[in-house]
Design brief:
With about 170 residues, the protein is mainly α. Helices cover about 60% and strands about 5% of the residues. The protein has 6 helices and 2 strands, in the order H-H-H-H-E-E-H-H. The chain starts with 5 loop residues before the first helix and ends with a helix.
């Protein structure tokens, strides 16, 4: 009997959460992707954009491990689909970020390697370290949380839901 590795298992868990998000945004127009449907500011395009930015930033943090703050990590514009942005372009960016994350994780010698986190406005004063494993688990949690948000936004948009569209 062959068992998969921890890297494979965690990468697959992240891929499954990404797939749920992609089901949720399937068939949308750019106007629908940019539309608010709840009292929240969240839009489906904004969620895709944020998750793409998040994977880009956390993959850089995980692979460089230098404590540098990735470009755009604190940019509040990452949560909104800006005028002129298209859902296909945001989905391409997300796919590229996902491929980069998957390649980075596959290339890690050890998920237990210690990574220096960047300093943010909410950071404690002393340097903070996470394992590459914890960063990957953070990406899984973040993707799952926002895939759930996306499902609610989509259902309020047109009644579609991910469970029925699988």
């Amino acid at each position: 009997m062959t068992t998969s590795s921890e890297k494979t298992d965690l990468s697959q868990a992240l891929a499954e959460q990404r797939e749920l998000l992609l089901i949720t945004v399937r068939g949308l127009t750019d106007a629908q992707a940019a539309q608010r449907t709840t009292v929240s500011e969240l839009t489906l395009g904004g969620i895709v954009k944020h998750l793409a930015q998040g994977e880009e930033a956390w993959t850089q943090i995980m692979t460089k491990g230098d404590g540098e703050l990735p470009d755009g990590m604190l940019d509040m514009g990452q949560y909104r689909m800006a005028e002129g942005e298209t859902l296909p372009a945001l989905l391409e960016r997300y796919a590229a970020a996902a491929r980069a994350t998957d390649e980075a994780v596959a290339g890690l010698p050890d998920l237990g390697q210690s990574v220096l986190l960047p300093t943010t406005p909410w950071s404690p004063p002393e340097p903070q370290y996470w394992s590459a494993r914890r960063i990957l688990l953070h990406l899984i949690r973040e993707t799952a949380q926002h895939a759930g948000h996306a499902d609610i936004v989509r259902e309020a948009l047109d009644g579609a839901n991910t469970t029925a569209r699988r």
